[in-house]
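re: that chain from earlier
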Amino acid sequence: MSRRGAIARIFDQLPRFAGRDDPEIRFRTELVLGFGAFELLGTILFALGELIWGTPPIGVIYALAAIPIFAILVWVWRGGDAARGGFAIMTVLFVSISTVNFGAGGRAIGANLALPTLVLFAVLMSTPRAGAIWTALVLAEITGMAFMRRSHYDFPIKPNLQWVAHAVDRVPFLLSLISALIGSVTLRALGQYRTHLELARKAAAENAERFADFAEVVADGVWETDDRLRLTYVSPSFAQAMGISAAQAIGLTPEQAYRLRFPGAPDLSAYLAPMLAGQPFRDQLLHTLDHTDRKRILLNQGRPIKDKHGRFAGFRGAVRDITERRYAEQALRASEHRLRLIADNLPALISYIDSQRVFRFNNSAYSEWIGRPLAEITGRLVADVYDERTYRLIEPHIDRALAGERVGFELGPQGSRSRHVRVTYVPDFDDNGEVLGMFGMVHDVSELKQVESELRILAEIDSLTGMANRNRFNARLASAIERSVRTGKFMALLFLDLDEFKSINDSLGHAGGDQVLQEFARRLTQCVRPTDTVARLGGDEFVIVIEGLHKPEDVAVVAAKIVAAMAEDFSVVGTRRRVTASIGIAIRRDDELDGEPIMRRADGALYSVKSGSPGMFCIAD
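^ sequence. v structure.
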């Protein structure tokens, strides 16, 4: 490897050893190390030359000066401040050169030769002011040396006159060598400086491009102004959203750029107030039209920037396009409004209960039904909204719904609750099948239950007489047989039929026939106990179920009572009419476990009465 290559490799390691990444600082450091190494080499050569061929005392001074110069170079190499190191080297050189010059009376050729290089070193290494001071000191010393050389004083150091006489041969050689070394050091430092400047410029460009990319990624547009609020940068995406080009916006204030697209825009002072005051701002809404004339809504924010001296240097900001989000929010609000309107007008309680059993939604019917404002319902635990008894009834169903089961149940009137309700709980699942909560629907079915009850009554009651009809009779007969079997008591079935009812209808009409049936039913009811069942099977056929008889003969007493009740004439449509009824009776046998055989035997007994003695009764065997 060549010497130049080795030196270049050493200088390339400077950032690693000293950590100097700033190009200007690295340039000064290389100059200090380069010129310091040159001065160290020159000082050593002068010391050797004087010690061997010239004046030994001068050689000793140079040799002593080389020691601190070497130490300073090592200190700068290991990370010391280059400016302080250069000042220290110049001070050592100036002191050593001045010592030799004043000791030899200005006749030391080497010391005088070193002064110009000291000036060059001082100008390159120092600030302009410090360089002027060092130059003035050197010029003053040169002037003083010229005066001392013309004096007749006796100076302590006596230069070797022969060595001085041959200086005319050495000086051009030394000056050429010095110039070559200085040029090499300067070129090396300038080359490195250009390289690092190019690297820094390239890195700055890459960082700027990276910043722009990041800015475009994290925001939908970025912008920057100078201290007079003129736009110095506008990202392409922001310019497109504003409907202008980036080139058009540069140099304009934000207001001018906005009015470039919307000349008739209203007063913008409220938007510009934070920037004019130098205050950061957030969440400014900008309504604009992009380059395709599509409406855009932008969220703008910015903060002031300052220079290295803390002075206001402009603003830097970013915008985010919230058009889709704003439209989605508007659509969501409209949808929620529609759903709320629908829910509030449904004749039912509609709610949403989360997994913590807290009401998250309630329609307005809740306020009416519970008697509390929605503010005291929504956001409260279900257990805090309902009374304790009601919550105990619905809690198991809530548990099932929150476990993922669709639940339906009914609650009848109880305590302070006057309604009969039907409740449905539908679980709400997320995409992973986890239960988030449940929807609740409560319908008031009180009227429906009332209608059902009335229909049930109508289905079991004879509309003309108010007695039980065939449906209820069948159920009552089956129950009576079951109780007779269980208790061992007798049970009897009476089958009744009006005698000559067809002639009554023919002579008095259907209205008269209906009056006869109604009066007959009233008299039958008065002849039996409230626990006995009296029913009309249809037409003029009636049946009576008598339970709890201690002996079979007891039924004859009831039958005789009925016959006697019919002895009094009926008043029908203003006339008096005699009405009789025939009665067939069957007493349940131990082997009769359903109503059909009993009915058959009672019907047979009735047939016997009507065939032989109408208006009387007969008990079947």
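The radius of gyration is 61 Å.
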